[in-house]
Design goal:
The chain is mainly beta and 101 residues long. It has one domain. Helices cover 14% and strands 42% of the residues. The protein has a 6-stranded antiparallel sheet, with helices on one face.
Amino acid sequence: MEKITSRKVLFTIYDGGKQITQFKIWIGGLTGGDSISILHGNRMDIENDNSMNESLSLEKHSGELRLKPMGMWMFGADRDKPMTPPEAAEYIWKMVCDQFS
């Protein structure tokens, strides 16, 4: 894990000492604001935030704040489902790991 700024973190995943992927998570996005943006892949420009694989936005749902995916990665019935923070973390992890299946 490499903290780039107080609003951006870069994670690198290794297998046997060899880099297999990276993913960057930052607050903001193409339109700014407080959305959470995610980009994954092997060639990561940590300074360039004008591309992403997914974005999660805050949404009030049944009196609680939830994270709603833009749906760029996941297609199907749960695409618009507001998520709790643990569900959002699992969603991001699955998205990053999906490239290996």
